[in-house]
Write a structure and sequence with these properties.
Helix content of chain B: under 10%
Number of helices of chain A: 0
Oligomer: heterodimer
Order of helices and strands of chain A: EEEEEEEEEEE
Shape of chain A: globular
Largest sheet of chain A: 7 strands, mixed
Distance between the termini of chain B: 36 Å
Structural class of chain B: mainly beta
Radius of gyration of chain A: 14 Å
Radius of gyration of chain B: 13 Å
């Protein structure tokens, strides 16, 4: 049974760095068939894909155009997890952040983390 | 990015009655591999989204058979044959045909009359 467990702070000051981690059980971050994603939900933008990482002979990364320059996703094979960093944050980055698995062959998010409400405020 | 448009945005339904949600994409969701990648999600209050349907009409494990998906190309429908109290929440369609930015509809809020 695949499970994703998120961790990270719920409050970040403007201009600082948002860091969240998603620990995977029941699958591998190095899977040759799955992709590992970060998605955000806010009242103004709805559900919004932020970026992903996946391994296909080498590590690959894709980021939403709206996030480019501020976002990084890091896989950690030793801990079987992946992380999101967003910097510098602005108040509009406030929202619920989810990690999610895109499984092989069906191109949709079948497993989700529990979500982390992140507030950007001083 | 592909724009996903759902309607209605609000859906009051009587218990035991059917419900239907429509979703339209700005581009065809037929992938070059021949599959059509349209997903449906349910988000209950305070919970993460849960996928119900993938590739238009395939139910995920554990999803009741009162949920069904249909459609093709750019027009899709989620149907609930008989609404139960546990079905209250927001329903989203999502396209997975156009990498890497899968996109979601605005959501349809289902409530009990």
């Amino acid at each position: 049974q695949v499970q994703l467990q998120q961790s990270g702070p719920g409050l970040v000051e403007p201009s600082q760095t948002l860091s969240l981690t998603c620990a995977i059980s029941g699958d591998s971050v190095s899977s040759n068939t799955a992709a590992w994603n970060w998605i955000r939900q806010s009242p103004s933008r709805g559900l919004e894909w932020l970026g992903r990482t996946y391994y296909r002979s080498r590590w690959e990364f894709d980021y939403a155009a709206s996030m480019k320059g501020r976002i990084s996703i890091y896989p950690d094979t030793s801990k079987n997890q992946f992380s999101l960093q967003l910097r510098p944050v602005i108040p509009e980055d406030t929202g619920i952040y989810y990690c999610a698995r895109d499984p092989p062959d069906d191109q949709g998010y079948d497993k989700w983390g529990q979500g982390t409400l992140v507030t950007v405020s001083s | 990015d592909v724009v996903m448009t759902q309607f209605p945005l609000s859906l009051p339904v009587t218990l035991g009655q059917p419900a239907s949600i429509s979703c339209r994409s700005s581009q065809s969701l037929v992938h070059r591999d021949g599959n059509t990648y349209l997903n449906w999600f349910q988000q209950r209050p305070g919970q993460s989204p849960r996928r119900l349907i993938y590739k238009v009409s395939n139910r995920d494990s554990g999803v009741p058979d009162r949920f069904s998906g249909s459609g093709s190309g750019t027009d899709f429908t989620l149907k609930i044959s008989r609404v139960e109290a546990e079905d209250v929440g927001v329903y989203y369609c999502m396209q997975g045909a156009h990498w890497p930015a899968y996109t979601f509809g605005q959501g349809t809020k289902l409530e009990i009359k």
